[in-house]
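Human: I'm a chemist; would you kindly supply sequence and structure tokens for a protein?

Assistant:
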Amino acid sequence: MPEQFAAQSPNDLPDLPTVLSMTGLEFIAGIRDGTIAGPPIATVMNTYIHEVEKGRVAFRGTPEFQHFNPMGGVHGGWYGTILDSAMACAVATILPKGSIYTTLEYKVNLTRALKPGALVECIGIVQHSGRSTAVAQGTIIGVEDGKLYGTGSTTCIIMQP
């Protein structure tokens, strides 16, 4: 199986007709399996897709020095980004061919500080899916210590272009 990779230019990303030709589950699994380029933000944030199933996606990631805030802790945006990625990709896995999605809004709760170099797993799970919106929740759990580091919720819009 090929290794996951992030797009290095806009030309590496699949075009809209390609995306629309797949179910959301096929699309997200393709990124996980390395047959489709992932988004460049995965490299910036040091995250990757770990598991994919219908209605559930797990990301893993490790915050490092480049993710620090001015006070020397992991920036809240790192938590938000991995949560948004996992929750929104979970929503993607329920989409039929011909549909796309994007985040309408999300909320993040930080429950404890992450240490740089700590591997975490962020799990997004779909709670509700309708014709035009879907709702998902997410958790960030330490892989080594099993502790809860953050939670989130999202609403995504579902579109048929």
Observations:
- The CA atoms of residues 80 and 108 lie 6 Å apart.
- The domain at 10-159 is CATH 3.10.129.10 (Thiol Ester Dehydrase; Chain A).
